[in-house]
Write a structure and sequence with these properties.
Length: 252
């Protein structure tokens, strides 16, 4: 016997044109059961909330999850037949646009990706009925107005690929900048420059996901309040910046 969520996932994969062999290997459902479900005359009852399906590439999903939490959304098709995943990428970062477009098919092979130009940014869009299964944080309203908590299977992916998750968050809502200050050296004031990473997000839950992951990676960070609210997370210590440069890097 297979539970309803397994049936929904398996039939969704078959509907994408996947072979019964590949779907059987991924879901553990026998080919005989898959053929039986395909031949059913009555539709399966729809679940109120689709169960999460496994991403094809967890590493790519960790990066895409970071992009989604920063600048993404999932919206229903007007006719109610499916959902759009939309990731907003600024025109200033063409490399980010291309990487976002490339990573979506890695997470769910076979899906088409479209670029829609808006003033100042490109929306990287992909249509699929089951996007909410991969992004259960989807919901009405703005992210910072609702609770954002990863499901256990998502947290397992974050723990397995923490740098990809951090990279996605920084590439969406972060930046690498060069700060400067002055110091007196032997009586002469000299300019001193140093690199720094910033991550800015209104959602306390998303900021906490970012800082908790940095803690596990040994990256030192500080809060930089804006009008008394800690919207900004800074990484400025030399060793921590070196780690971020090695695994994250600036947007391009």
């Amino acid at each position: 016997m297979y539970d309803h969520s397994t049936r929904v996932l398996a039939l969704a994969l078959v509907a994408q044109g996947r072979s019964l062999n590949s779907v059987s290997r991924e879901t553990g459902v026998s080919r005989a059961a898959l053929r039986s479900w395909q031949e059913r005359l009555e539709p399966l009852p729809r679940a109120a909330t689709p169960a999460p399906g496994p991403p094809s590439c967890p590493r790519a999903y960790a990066y895409l999850l970071g992009l989604y939490l920063g600048d993404g959304c999932v919206s229903a098709h007007p006719r109610g037949t499916g959902h759009y995943l939309r990731i907003a990428c600024a025109d200033a970062w063409p490399g980010l646009i291309e990487e976002c477009r490339a990573v979506i098919p890695q997470v769910r092979p076979g899906l088409r990706v479209h670029l829609v130009q808006h003033p100042g940014y490109v929306s990287v869009n992909s249509y699929w009925r089951h996007w909410p299964t991969l992004f259960p944080q989807h919901g009405p309203g703005k992210k910072h107005e609702r609770r954002i908590t990863p499901e256990p299977w998502q947290q397992a992916i974050i723990d397995a690929h923490p740098w990809e998750f951090v990279r996605g968050l920084v590439h969406s809502d972060g930046c690498r900048i060069t700060n400067w200050t002055t110091r007196l050296v032997r009586g002469e004031r000299k300019r001193y420059e140093y690199p720094r990473y910033f991550f800015t997000n209104v959602s306390a839950d998303i900021r906490r996901l970012y800082t908790d992951t940095l803690d596990k990676l040994g990256v030192e960070w500080t809060e930089c309040p804006r009008n008394g609210i800690p919207f900004n997370i800074s990484v400025a210590r030399k060793a921590s910046v070196a780690l971020m440069d090695l695994h994250v890097g600036p947007k391009y």
